[in-house]
Amino acid sequence: MCFYCKGNLFDSITTHVVNYKNCLIIIKNVPCEECEQCGEKYYSDETMETLETIVTAAKNLAGEISVIDFHHTAA
Fold first, then answer.
1. Which has fewest Cβ within 10 Å: 8, 13, 37, 75?
2. What is the dihedral of CA 9, 46, 12, 5, to 10 degrees?
3. Which domains does the chain possess?
4. CA distance 15 to 7
5. CA distances (Å), origin 46, targets 5, 30, 51, 59
6. DSSP 8-class letter at 50
7. Which of 31, 43, 45, 30 is nearest to 3 (CA)?
8. Is the pLDDT of residue 65 over 80?
9. How far apart are CA 46 and CA 21, in angstroms?
10. Does 57 have pLDDT greater than 90?
11. Are 47 and 32 in contact (CB under 8 A)?
């Protein structure tokens, strides 16, 4: 159930974007649960840990834009 609107959640895939010191880190194909009513996205604890790892690594390599596929990096 959605925290904001109490709508139902369904399994989905999203793109997670982080703006770090004027660099965009774009992580695509991120698994999430999405509210069918308001569109709010929720990540599992495991997905959040993986996102943190990916973003930390990307910060060290980042140019102006980094695009990373979640499934290729999380494997």
1. 75
2. 30
3. 9-74 (3.10.20)
4. 21
5. 24, 11, 9, 20
6. H
7. 43
8. no
9. 26
10. no
11. yes
Element (H, E) at 59: helix 45-61
Q: What is the maximum span of the chain, computed from C-alpha positions, in angstroms?
A: 39
pLDDT of residue 32: 97
- pLDDT tens-digit readout, 33-55: 999 999 999 999 999 999 999 99
pTM, two decimals, is 0.79
Short-list 17, 20, 12, CA closest to 67: 17
Give me 62's structure tokens.
């980042």
The alpha carbon of residue 46 and the mean position of all alpha carbons in its chain are separated, in whole angstroms, by 12
Q: d(Cα 17, Cα 15) in Å, to the nearest integer?
A: 6
At 43, list the tokens.
């990540």
